[in-house]
Write a structure and sequence with these properties.
With 386 residues, the protein is α/β, with parallel strands linked by helices. Helix content is 41%, strand content 17%. The strands form two sheets. The chain has a seven-stranded parallel beta sheet with strand order 3-2-1-4-5-6-7, with helices on both faces. A six-stranded parallel beta sheet has the order 10-9-8-11-12-13, with helices on both faces.
């Protein structure tokens, strides 16, 4: 059988949901069926994990970065183009917004037979200036013209794309993020001892990159509001990023030292989630946050902002609570209700894990993506030519 040359393009292998899902996909694809190439920035916390996957070729770009830089972006475009031409790539599958635009443009110019893009939340949002938002919408519309399949992880993102006239409906394919449920089945409380948290204290956690989208400053404000009613509750913020200094200053300003714990990036998220009592997410906009899925797989109730596809997994009053972005007053009220009621937490957590069916399994994510590849390949018989 012909071995298909498949190129993945992603901006940076940081510890995010999109990146973890991509590496899980690469690790589980049949290397005898797919000759896999990965084009990525030369730095990233998950780069070592990518390098450990056998049977793939990694191309590290010195120019690829998240920020817009016309000169570097042009060089990245050229890099991707030559990778495609040199290796006779047959499928290009892009991930993340910037890599999605540059990678698809290069694939189009190189006349790649099949171009696929996964939306991990759109490049535009309601918090951008109108001109910036309009520019990104135009870029997505233009790129969609020569994208054979647009994978979305939530119905919300599909509808958002269609509402903004990005591609036709038959181009969209819903493939949910996949969770390895076995990773989240263990219960290990000893993480509290490592962090210096009493085993009797209630613990609330959030896992997120410290960037404006996730609004981590709101998590600190939430901690302050909850402390007024429940002074013994501890808050764990897992992650890092450009807002760390501001976060640390706000913690000091609100006298939350010893109340809020900043762990930095962690690779033992299942272990941390197993030891908390409730999970929080304060995002301003989302696609479908995998951290919420992981918390639910850990049988934890969720209090999150009502953004993106979160409403498709968190059922109000059943598996958690949803509030509008930046409404920390209401979020604190909902969280306090949970923290004061152990039985309610247990019931919501149990319903949360029970609600995650096969659609959210790692096996389904990998199989659905592989099936999509095989389908588009079968529709383009030229890919079988040597």
């Amino acid at each position: 059988m012909h071995r298909i040359k498949l190129l993945f393009v992603v901006t940076k292998l940081e510890l995010g949901g999109a990146q973890k899902q991509l590496l899980s996909l690469i690790a589980h694809l049949n290397k005898e069926r797919f000759h896999i190439f990965l084009f990525v920035a030369q730095e990233g916390l998950l780069l070592s994990e990518a390098l450990s996957i056998k049977g793939i070729t990694i191309i590290k770009s010195r120019c690829l970065e998240r920020a817009i830089n016309p000169i570097k972006d042009l060089l990245v475009f050229i890099e991707v183009y030559w990778v495609i031409k040199k290796n006779n790539i047959e499928i290009v599958h892009t991930h993340s917004s910037k890599a999605g635009i540059l990678g698809r443009l290069a694939a189009r110019l190189a006349k790649v037979g099949i171009i696929i893009h996964t939306v991990h939340g759109w490049s535009f949002n309601d918090y951008q200036p109108a001109l910036v938002r309009g520019f990104f919408i135009w870029l997505e519309r233009f790129s969609a013209r020569f994208t054979h399949k647009i994978i979305v992880v939530s119905h919300y993102d599909k509808q958002k794309g269609l509402n903004n006239r990005i591609g036709k409906e038959d181009r969209y394919e819903l493939i949910r993020y996949g969770i390895d449920y076995k990773e989240f089945s263990e219960r290990k409380q000893n993480i509290r001892q490592e962090l210096g948290i009493n085993t009797r204290d209630l613990v609330v956690a959030m896992v997120a990159c410290f960037k404006p989208q996730k609004s981590p400053m709101d998590f600190i404000k939430l901690s302050f509001l909850v402390k007024k009613s429940l002074p013994n509750v501890k808050f764990v913020l897992v992650g890092d990023g450009i807002l760390r200094e501001e976060i640390e200053k706000l913690i000091c300003k609100l006298n939350l030292e010893g109340q809020v714990f900043l762990t930095g990036w962690r690779r033992d998220i299942p272990r941390i989630l197993s030891a908390i009592d409730a999970f929080v997410l304060t995002s301003l906009w989302e696609g479908l946050p995998i951290t919420v899925l992981e918390a639910m797989a850990s049988s934890k109730p969720v209090v999150a902002t009502h953004t993106g596809g979160i409403q498709e997994i968190v059922v109000e009053g059943k598996t958690g609570f949803l509030v509008s972005p930046r409404n920390m007053e209401l979020m604190s009220e909902q969280l306090i209700i949970l923290l004061k009621n152990e039985e309610l937490r247990r019931q919501m957590g149990q319903r949360a894990i029970e609600s995650l069916d096969f659609n959210f399994s790692l096996e389904n994510m990998v199989n659905s993506t592989k099936t999509l590849y095989e389908t588009v390949v079968s529709q383009n018989s030229s890919l079988y030519a040597n």
